[in-house]
Design a protein that fits this description.
The complex is a heterodimer of chains A (about 250) and B (about 250). Chain A is an all-alpha fold and about 250 residues long. Chain A has helices spanning about 1-20, 25-65, 70-110, 115-120, 125-160, 165-170, 175, 180-205, 210-250. Chain B contains nine helices and ten strands. The chains are: A mainly alpha (about 250), B alpha/beta (about 250). The complex binds adenosine-5'-triphosphate (ATP) and magnesium ion.
């Protein structure tokens, strides 16, 4: 375990130094970003829609008691942006993109394609690993945007049906409650979640040994490890963010 | 000339290669025989720096290369081409692009020079009609030949073949063995061939090394090995006699 973490840190260092020192080709980066976005677009937008809907219904029940339904849109959106959106997107991606990346790299490893790449004068970190890592991060930020957009839409629809609040009223108080800090918090989280996701998936994929069975194992390990790490990182970022915020605000 | 000196390699607590020493002479065809799992692939991968030995030395001409950095190994990998045990083709690239992969990265060629080299290499393995196919549209034997073409395209001085004929039909096997022989005759290419196939070793090898459990149990010319007292070598030879007596269609397991 400790050994694995050490290896993972060395691996990350290699990715980062590849990204910052050698750079990667623009085509590779776009290709990977597009691939991740396409793979998860539907799931993330669907999830976004329903999360927005659920949040709105839940908030509507409680806000009604205080006659504060005007703030429904603001609260639901803020909650989605700060917490549920990033977490849900990270979980979706870990099941889909994380598993896919680990399987892809694992297969390349056990079928000696990685060896062949090195023997043919190419650098797997530059051409395969770093573009996937960066692609996952950038695509996740996009996906958060889409997901949040859909969640506002879903919430708006529910508010209309269950609380007789029209779109205009729903949206009006979003800017009052959704502050810059909510937006930063959401993107900050998604960045670190996808950072860990990309790191773990490429690391476990690239360290695969032992044939088809080994690939299966890497996929399962990636799914489990990313979920656990994401929840831990969520706790860390939330705590960190709130203490930074309370230090700044007075 | 290539020389291994007391090369050792372990994975965890399992010792795979145990102080192996031998040399490969320029221009010769050297066969390395051994049962499955004795570390033949590991040995070849140490030579091109895909794996690093725990101890010992690897000399190429008068350079000790085993502690080279990944960048330094690039020059070694231009001279020493490796054909892997599995086809190891890139699924998302066509046959043409697979063969061009190394050329694009290691040599600056004009587009028509590049395609000439690719087609030439595919012709060597009798596959020049298939350059626009994708690997999953090819049979296993065809994939394996594409992978040989991909390595040949770089015109390396030394060729490493990791079981080039395992899983191929008898006709293709003969083609590949003839190719190895011709390359050594015409271009004076040095070849190290890892194999289970004693028969073809006897046919085309200049020398044979037999590995078992991390040690070299015997080595010599084919004629010398035929007189060997080693049990494993005799076992391999018995198989040759049997296959030549029984039906030639008998397939060996990989
Ligand atoms: N990267 C690795 N990590 C851990 N163990 C490995 C690794 N590569 C090879 N091994 C182990 O080393 C041993 C020798 O493997 P190797 O592939 O060299 O065998 P081989 O002689 O080529 O056999 P075969 O004829 O089946 O290809 C095997 O037991 C294998 O499991
Ligand atoms: Mg092998």
């Amino acid at each position: 375990m400790i050994n694995q973490i050490g290896l993972a840190v060395i691996f990350l260092n290699k990715i980062l130094s590849t990204l910052f020192k050698k750079g990667i080709s623009r085509e590779d980066f776009f290709e990977q970003t597009l691939k991740v976005t396409q793979q998860s677009f539907l799931t993330v937008t669907m999830a976004g829609f329903f999360v927005g809907a659920i949040m709105t219904i839940q908030f509507a029940l409680q806000l009604k008691e205080y006659a504060a339904l005007a703030y429904l849109g603001g609260l639901a959106t803020s909650g989605t942006l700060r917490e549920l959106g990033p977490l849900l997107i990270a979980f979706m991606l870990s099941g889909k993109v994380g598993a896919f990346t680990a399987a892809e790299l694992g297969t390349m490893k056990v079928t000696e394609q990685m060896d062949a790449i090195r023997c043919l004068g190419a650098d797997p970190f530059k051409e395969i690993i770093a573009p996937r890592f960066l692609g996952i991060i950038v695509a996740s930020l996009f996906l958060l945007l889409f997901g949040i957009g859909m969640s506002v839409f879903g919430g708006l629809l529910m508010a209309n049906i269950f609380a007789q609040i029209n779109a205009d009223q729903y949206v009006r108080h979003i800017p009052t409650i959704v502050k810059l800090s909510s937006i930063i918090s959401g993107f900050f989280k998604v960045f670190w979640f996808s950072f860990c996701l990309g790191w773990i998936a490429t690391f476990l994929g690239y360290s695969t040994t032992g044939g088809a069975k080994g690939v299966g194992l890497s996929v399962v390990n990636t799914a489990v490890a990313t979920m656990v790490v994401i929840v831990i990182v969520d706790w860390i970022t939330t705590t960190l963010f709130n203490s930074v915020l309370s230090m700044l605000a007075f | 000339m290539i020389r291994f000196v007391e090369l050792s390699k372990s994975f965890g607590s399992r010792t795979i290669l145990n102080k192996i020493s031998f040399e490969v002479r320029t221009g010769e065809i050297l066969f390395i025989l051994g049962t499955s799992g004795t570390g033949k692939s590991v040995l070849l991968k140490n030579l091109v720096g895909l794996l690093r030995p725990d101890s010992g030395q690897i000399w190429v001409d008068d350079q000790e290369i085993s502690r080279y950095s990944e960048e330094q190994y690039l020059s070694i990998r231009r001279q020493i081409g490796m054909v892997f045990q599995q086809p190891a083709l890139f699924d998302s690239l066509t046959v043409f692009e697979n063969v061009a992969f190394g050329l694009r990265r290691l040599e600056k060629l004009l587009p028509d020079e590049l395609s000439k080299r690719v087609i030439e290499s595919l012709q060597l393995v009798h596959l020049h009609q298939l350059e626009n196919r994708y690997p999953n549209e090819l049979s296993y034997g065809q994939q394996k030949r594409v992978s040989i073409a991909r390595t040949l395209a770089l015109k390396p001085k030394v060729l490493l073949f990791d079981e080039p004929t395992t899983g191929l039909d008898p006709v293709t096997t003969t083609t590949v063995n003839e190719l190895i022989f011709e390359l050594s005759q015409k271009l004076k290419t040095t070849s190290i061939v890892v194999s289970h196939d004693m028969k073809c070793a006897i046919d085309i090898a200049h020398r044979i090394i037999v590995l078992d459990k991390g040690h070299i149990v015997d080595q010599g010319t084919p004629d010398e090995l035929k007189k060997s007292e080693q049990e494993l070598v005799k076992e391999f030879l018995r198989e040759v006699l049997q296959t030549s007596q029984s039906a030639p269609t008998k397939e060996k397991l990989p």
